[in-house]
Amino acid sequence: MSVTAQAGLFAGGVLLGAGGVALFSRRGQEAKVQAVPVTAAPVPAVRAPAPGAAVAAPISDALALSGHPGPIADLLKQRAYISSYDRRLQHPVWTAEHLTAESIARQPGPDGANRGKSFFTEDARIPELFRSTNAAYFRSGYDRGHMVPAADAKSSQQAMDETFLLSNIAPQVGPGMNRDYWAHTEDFVRRLTTKFDDLYVFTIPLYLPRQASDGKWRVSYEVIGSPPSVSVPTHFAKVILGTGLKASEGSLMAKAGLGSPVALGAFVMPNSMIPDTAPLRSFEADARS
C-alpha cells in the first residue's frame, strides 16, 4: 500500500522602515539607532516524495553511537507463509498462510518435500541476542511446536525447511496437545481445502489471564531456557477464513450452517493435555475478539 507524503514550507519576513527607532537610555536621553536592512535567508525547496517511496526517519545524535534499538517484532516472509516474530517472547506473535488443495499436495518425483530432510534451525535473520535456540528447548518438558505445520508446506523442500525455523516455533505441551489434539486440528484445517477454493489460516500464541484464589485475574506463564528466554504461551488460537465454497459441497455445508460462500471460524485451545474425546466446538471463539 503506497503512502503519499506531502510537505509544505512556509516562510515569513519582517520589513524594517527607513526611519530610525527611538530608544531611551537610563539617563533619559534619547538615542537613535539606524535601521539595518535585513536580507531574508534563502528558503530551500522541499519536494514531496513520490508515491510509494520510503521516507527515512531522522536519526538523532543520541542514537548515532549505539544505533536505533530496532523493532520489537520482525516481519518474516517465507515461501509458504509469513509471520511476525516477537524478540521479547522469542516466538511468533502470529503466522499467516494461504492454503489450497494444490498448495498442500506433495510434488511428485525426487524434488518433492521430505520431512525427514528438515531440521530445527535457528533463524539467522533474527539478531543473535533475540534468537530462539534449540538449547532453550532442551530438557524443558515442551515440544518445539510448529505454528505453520510442515504438512502445509509441501510445495518444495525449501518451503518445508522454512517451517522448521525456530522463528516458526513456540513451546507446546507434547502429549495430548502438539502430538495429538493440535495435530488433529491442523489436519482438520487441511481437509477444509476440499470444501473451499481458498483458505486463509492464522495461528496465534496467546497469554490469557486466569482468576486466582483472591478473585483477581492475572497473566502468569513459564519461561524456558538458560538463562530463561523463550516464553511459554498459555493458549493457542487458530483463525480460519474459507472462501469459494465448492459447488459439490454446497448442500452439505448448508446443513452445517456454512452455506455462505465465505465462512469464518476461530478456536482457542489451552496449552495443556486435551482429551481426544473433547469436541472441537468446545473451543470455538468469537473471531472478532
UniProtKB/TrEMBL annotation:
- PROSITE patterns xrefs: NUCLEASE_NON_SPEC
Q: What GO biological process terms are annotated to this protein in UniProt?
A: apoptotic DNA fragmentation
Q: Where are the transmembrane segments?
A: 6-24
Give the record's GO CC terms: mitochondrial inner membrane; nucleus
MF terms from GO for this chain are: metal ion binding; nucleic acid binding; RNA endonuclease activity; single-stranded DNA endodeoxyribonuclease activity
Transmembrane among the record's keywords? yes
Q: Which SMART domains match?
A: Endonuclease_NS (SM00892), NUC (SM00477)
Query: Pfam families per the record?
Result: Endonuclease_NS
DNA/RNA non-specific endonuclease/pyrophosphatase/phosphodiesterase domain span: 77-287
Q: Which residues form the ENPP1-3/EXOG-like endonuclease/phosphodiesterase domain?
A: 78-289
**Top-level taxon of origin:** Eukaryota
Which Gene3D superfamilies does this entry report, sorted A to Z?
Extracellular Endonuclease, subunit A
> By its UniProt entry, which InterPro entries does this protein fall under?
DNA/RNA_endonuclease_AS, DNA/RNA_non-sp_Endonuclease_sf, Endo_G_ENPP1-like_dom, ENPP1-3/EXOG-like_nuc-like, His-Me_finger_sf, Non-specific_endonuclease
In the Enzyme Commission scheme, what number(s) does this protein have? 3.1.30.-
Give the residues annotated as active site. H146
Note whether Magnesium occurs among the keywords.
yes
Q: Which family does it belong to?
A: Belongs to the DNA/RNA non-specific endonuclease family.
Q: What is this protein called?
A: Endonuclease
**Organism of origin:** Malassezia japonica
User: What gene makes this protein?
Assistant: NUC1
